[in-house]
Amino acid sequence: MGVMLAAGIAVRAAEAPGPQAAELTIMTYNLRYASDRPPNAWPQRRPVMKACIEHVNPDLIGTQEGVYSQLRDLEADLPAYAWIGTGRDGGSRGEFMAVFYRRARFEPVEFDHFWLSDTPQIIGSITWGHTNRRMVTWVKFKDRETGQEFYFWNTHFDHAVQQAREKSAQLVRERVEALRTRLPVILVGDFNAVAGANRAYDILVQEGGFHDTWHLARERHNEGVNTFNNFSGVQSGGQRIDWILLRGEADVAATEIVTFEQGGQLPSDHFPVVARLKLKPVAP
């Protein structure tokens, strides 16, 4: 496979990381909320999703759409992980942008939530013409293996209103810039926008200092597969709406759209996207 490195960072991305670097396996996964009827009801999907996550063996997962009972099920099924999140309607209500992490390896140092609106601190706020409440959950982690700190941000942009996607991208960009940090920032989510073909992507990647790990990777697996499958199997059209973005420097070994299924059952109506990378250590 050819390797497409973003202009201006090709040399840095290819450099060998320092001795403190350790590989991270990052997953972004729209779980599909737990309200479908058979054959795609949550009880049918739950064991397949568990098997899918165990197959990938990620260190960190940004999930979208999961509701509280569903996340509690995953917590029970995956005891090596803890999670942080809140419902987009407040408390345990509505869908979560939950962040799962290996409890033995990572220590959450800080976390917060905000809503994608002109009033981001108001729970459940919407101001851009969309009807579904949208939000961000972020966590600052310390890697116990290396002592390295980094940020992990997880979001879900609107599915219907382009203005809302663009304003969401701008708000995320502003909030990340407001950190005024040299630490790496990993941004994952279901952006409901095709990578490289939507203004929201440009705001973050072309103008916002983020790099798309898909293009930084030395190897890419299942390139061209749509990340939204609608429970209809693999479809090839290059519609990658689930992204793993990065501010900072990293050696990205591989990325993959994971087309896992078991006995004909897909775990979700999205395929998860995975990146295996080593962050370049930096001082805070």
In terms of topology, how is this protein built?
Blueprint: H1 10-14, E1 23-30, H2 42-56, E2 60-64, H3 68-77, E3 81-84, E4 99-102, E5 106-115, E6 135-143, E7 149-156, H4 162-178, E8 185-190, H5 199-206, E9 211-212, H6 213-216, E10 219-221, E11 242-247, E12 250-257, E13 273-279
Parallel strand pairs: 1-2, 7-8, 10-12
Antiparallel strand pairs: 1-13, 2-4, 3-4, 5-6, 6-7, 8-11, 9-11, 12-13
Helix pairs in contact: 2-3, 4-5
Proportion of residues in extended strands: 25-35%
Q: Mean of the pLDDT scores?
A: 93
What does the overall shape look like?
Answer: globular
* CATH class category: Alpha Beta
What is CATH's topology name? Deoxyribonuclease I, Chain A
Helix content: 10-25%
Task: Label the CATH architecture.
Answer: 4-Layer Sandwich
Structural class: alpha+beta
Structural description of this entry:
With 284 residues, the protein is α+β, with helices and mostly antiparallel strands. The protein has a single domain (10-279), classed as Endonuclease/exonuclease/phosphatase (Deoxyribonuclease I, Chain A). The chain is built from six helices and 13 strands. It has helices at 10-14, 42-56, 68-77, 162-178, 199-206, 213-216; strands at 23-30, 60-64, 81-84, 99-102, 106-115, 135-143, 149-156, 185-190, 211-212, 219-221, 242-247, 250-257, 273-279. The strands form two sheets. The protein has a seven-stranded mixed β-sheet with strand order 3-4-2-1-13-12-10. The chain has a six-stranded mixed β-sheet with strand order 5-6-7-8-11-9. Helix 4 packs parallel to helix 5. The radius of gyration is 18 Å and the shape is globular. Mean pLDDT is 93; it is low at 1-19.
